[in-house]
Amino acid sequence: MNNPNTALQPDSVWSPLFQQRAFRALMTAFSFPGRRQPLPPCVDAKGPACIAAVLCDNEVTLADPDHLIQPDDIRRLGIGEASVENAGFIIADGSRAPSFEPALGSLAEPEQGATLIIRVASLDGTTAFPLTLRGPGIEGTQSLGLRGLHDGWLAERARWNRNFPMGVDLILVDDTQVVALPRTTQISGGGN
Amino acid sequence: MNPNYQLTDSQDSYGFGFLDEFAKREIRRVILKAISIPGYQTPYASREMPMGRGFGTGGLQLTLSMIGPEDTLKVIDQGSDDSVNAVNLRKFAELTCPDVSTTESTTEATLIQTRHRVPEIALREDQVLNLQVPYPDPLVIVEPSEAKRKIMHGEGDYARLLTKLYEDLVKFDEITISHRYPTRINGHYVIDPSPIPRYDVPKLHQSQALLLFGAGREKKIYAVPPYTNAEPLVFDDVPFRTENFYNADGKRRACNRCGSTNSFLDELNLEDGSKAWQCSDTDFCNRQLARTDAGEVTQ
Ligand SMILES: [Zn+2]
């Protein structure tokens, strides 16, 4: 049910304090797209599972087509599982091109557009894949280097987000850090 | 809210921040969507709070969903940390969030909850402003149906709202809205920026800090992210004007306490029937006063 246990130490992903701190990292990440934010340390989860523990419970649906979350954690989250096309949250492996159509929301309810939690190899400022970002939350431009994101994601993301306010919001995550790319962020550069 | 509010025994067992973890998680999800869709009134399931709606429950729920032991909280009402409302909300936070520090200093705060004002001192990237909102939808005055308003917002269609403003313009030669000035965010959604004066609207534009708006009764949360355009709705030939505080001689009034001529002033009615003007932002006023006093000492 993802009912955080106050008896747990804050280094557990299921403790309220971890979830509060990790949420603040996420809120800062969404406020400043493209800037890496460290997740607070925790002993019992990594990357995508940390994000799911902060944001997901029985009130939302989640699809994990690449099986990035342990079955025990899925049970603990108590989430409603859904097809990728209908899920509010989708967890995916960034090294493979996406092969699904996420929910984009509607003109009246754009918040129904999915949140994609994408695991990448590393968000550590490598220049192998430099992207230039513009949009709300960015003063001028922001550059982002990362490893392990298939080019297909950027092309598909651009297509999913072509009709604002509909679209999807991306959370890129490696083992310990997070970068948010809300639907308003314009991306240029990269592999092509 | 009862000024001597005490948590009942059963509420005492509530976790940090009063709200249960499911309520916090829902608000957290909604905040991230609100930031992703700047200016969009994102619906959420507002929880019952131990005070009437209209006492800042929307802003309080934002604050309680994000606050942690590392935070320093400032609560202001019409610019003042000392008003009954601000004191009560601050006490409630102190009661339900042990370990959180509170402050009256704008620069020391990490979270600022406010009603009716944006602080005079420009906010930083590491600060968050949570504004209390009574009426979130600027289209209510032209369209009674929420379903239709949602479509108009989605299309960025504000023609009828502009017509309404234009009528004002024809009648009074300027747009007379003093508070809640409709403001377009990132070139799309128009928001009700809450009952802040026109004077504060330019502070929403390209702010370094995240600005969040919580409407508890209407169950909506919306955001102006940092470094985002926030433009008051205007017509090409009529510039947006803020309150200028000129006296009859066209001279800018000064605060009669600190002497500042670059702050938003409250008009006070003195006992002898005369009027005086004073900074509405008490922290700003105290700072100016301290600076003046220090200056006098060293001279
Ligand atoms: Zn003053």
Description:
The complex is a heterodimer of chains A (about 190) and B (about 300). Helix content of chain A is about 20%, strand content about 20%. Chain A contains four helices and ten strands. In chain A, the strands form two sheets. A seven-stranded mixed β-sheet of chain A has the order 1-9-8-5-4-2-3. Chain B is an alpha/beta fold. Helix content of chain B is about 30%, strand content about 15%. Chain B has helices at about 10, 20-35, 55-65, 85-95, 145-155, 160-170, 280-299, and strands at about 40-45, 70-75, 100, 110-115, 130, 185, 190, 210-215, 220-225, 230, 265-270, 275-280. In chain B, the strands form three sheets. Chain B has a seven-stranded mixed β-sheet. Chain B has a three-stranded antiparallel β-sheet with strand order 7-6-10, with no helix packed on it. The interface of A and B includes residues 27, 107, 169 and 180 of A. Bound molecules: zinc ion (ZN). Zinc ion (ZN) binds near residues 255, 257, 260, 279 and 288 of chain B. Chain A: This is Phosphonate C-P lyase system protein PhnH. Chain A: It holds the Pfam family PhnH. Chain A: InterPro entries: PhnH-like_sp (IPR038058), Phosphonate_metab_PhnH (IPR008772). Chain A: GO terms for molecular function: lyase activity.
